[in-house]
Amino acid sequence: MKINKICCIGAGYVGGPTMAVIAKKNPNIKVTIVDINEARIAAWNDTDVSKLPIYEPGLAEIVGETRGKNLFFSTEIDKAIDESEMIFISVNTPTKTYGKGKGMAADLKYVELCARNIAKVAKTDKIVVEKSTLPVRTAQAIKSILSNTGSGVNFDILSNPEFLAEGTAVQDLLNPDRVLIGGDSEEAIDGLANIYGSWVPQDRILRTNVWSSELSKLTANAFLAQRVSSINAISELCEHTEADVNEVAKAIGMDSRIGPKFLQASIGFGGSCFQKDILNLVYIARSYGLHEVADYWEQVIILNDHQKRRFSDHLIKTLYNTVSGKKIALLGWAFKKDTNDTRESAAIYVADHLLNEQAEITVYDPKVSEEKVQSDLNYLNTRSPEENKALLQSTDSPYEALDDAHAVAIMTEWDEFKSYDWEKIYKQMKKPAFIFDGRNILDKSEMNKIGFEYYSIGS
Ligand code: NAD
Ligand code: UGA
């Protein structure tokens, strides 16, 4: 099946970059990304591409190249659905905050709204592609909504989960390990495989049934997060035994069966998906009565929460058991480098814990605005927005953040932090000057030589 027009509902971290790359690699296909969020669409349409709502290396260039030619951003959702042969659903699927499954299950209300909108508008046959991460068997619900329109329109449902990581989204999309397509209509699968086939080798385009595809996405994230929790669990043991977690990670990673990637001990994983997707997996397993399976995966989250908490506990303990009234500088707020995304960032929880102990915090992140930092904290509802604002400030200058601080805590592994003038910083800080390196990016012996009391994860 030849596709000429695509619509993607959801102009977020997945919809934006994925569709930009599809448009770049398929100049003959018109790609329209739609969203209910007018401000977000306006930002995607900003003539200054440095103001796009999402920061991803390489993205602004691709959007600059394709926008207005075959890539369009719009709030006219019905029009885009009506004119397209293929519709991607790439809306958010957060953890439920109410009702049955609260705190565990994925909230599918946005996905359902999309399905209902497609059902209402479609006058011709459509291929509907699940791009959002969804619980196994969600396609059944989408199918049921779409097949009860009475309009005679035929809908094929495909599952095509996205595996990009933020910060490397463009590279991941241009050179994916695999593209996964689950479905039962060969014709529809071919239609989507041809779109990817314009740049992805056919042997990397994997075809499965819909349910395997849906479950593979949750499983991939669970395995990745499990590796981080595994190495973080070992990091705590290292701290008690004089083993060094970086050395352990290197030693085990050289075993080709284990492999070297995703073994970086840290302050704990963040991001919008690992926690949400594992909670969802746990919820699904419990709902089938598989309690051992559920408990096994839940432990990945429990360990991650422990890692965040023990980082701030250690900082407080080292600062003579009190941080009250002390200036603490946080370098980084994003959940990883090269993104402006802060969802579930470990920094939010560490800051909240330190604020409970009446620390005075200054934050510097090269890509995260002061408003975002404040709204992340306010979202926790631990204290009033006024109190958060009084206790925590953001600055545009790292040296200002560090001036007169008792301690600096590195929350994100931004490359620029490594090249700072640490001798100058040492002179600016209160003595003893403490560094808590939550990402193990600085060199311990160099920092000790300058005079810092330096603590990293797992050594
Ligand atoms: P996001 O919050 O950045 O974007 C979702 C967008 O959908 C928002 O702009 C929102 O306004 C819009 N939206 C919601 N309901 C809508 C509706 N009814 N009509 C039109 N627009 C609507 O989310 P994201 O990070 O892009 O994630 C989207 C999905 O992709 C999630 O299921 C997520 O689990 C999955 N995923 C995310 C990543 C990632 O790195 N962020 C990677 C792989 C998969
Ligand atoms: C992750 C997966 O890597 C993607 O394949 C998936 O598509 C995506 O989730 C999703 O479904 O949303 P992302 O969360 O963007 O991507 O970023 P990761 O690189 O996986 O990092 C997640 C968190 O783990 C970050 O906080 C990172 O700092 C942390 N991490 C990662 C470590 O602490 N150590 C590591 O070795 C690797």
TrEMBL record:
Coiled-coil residues: none
Gene3D superfamilies associated with the record: Cytochrome c1, transmembrane anchor, C-terminal (1.20.5.100), NAD(P)-binding Rossmann-like Domain (3.40.50.720)
EC number: 1.1.1.22
One protein family per Pfam: UDPG_MGDP_dh
Keywords from the named record: NAD, Oxidoreductase
Residues binding NAD(+): 10-15, 35, 40, 91-95, 132-133, 166, 273-276, 343
InterPro entries: 6-PGluconate_DH-like_C_sf, NAD(P)-bd_dom_sf, UDP-Glc/GDP-Man, UDP-Glc/GDP-Man_DH_C, UDP-Glc/GDP-Man_DH_C_sf, UDP-Glc/GDP-Man_DH_dimer, UDP-Glc/GDP-Man_DH_N, UDPglc_DH_euk
An example molecular function term from Gene Ontology annotations: UDP-glucose 6-dehydrogenase activity
Start and end residues of each UDP-glucose/GDP-mannose dehydrogenase C-terminal domain: 329-444
Top-level division of the source organism's lineage: Bacteria
Top enzyme class: oxidoreductase
Positions annotated as active site in the UniProt record: C273
Reactions accelerated catalytically: UDP-alpha-D-glucose + 2 NAD(+) + H2O = UDP-alpha-D-glucuronate + 2 NADH + 3 H(+)
Pathway membership, UniProt: Nucleotide-sugar biosynthesis; UDP-alpha-D-glucuronate biosynthesis; UDP-alpha-D-glucuronate from UDP-alpha-D-glucose: step 1/1
GO biological process, alphabetically ordered: glycosaminoglycan biosynthetic process; UDP-glucuronate biosynthetic process
Family: Belongs to the UDP-glucose/GDP-mannose dehydrogenase family.
Known function: Catalyzes the conversion of UDP-glucose into UDP-glucuronate, one of the precursors of teichuronic acid.
Identification of the protein by name: UDP-glucose 6-dehydrogenase
Organism this protein belongs to: Pseudotamlana haliotis
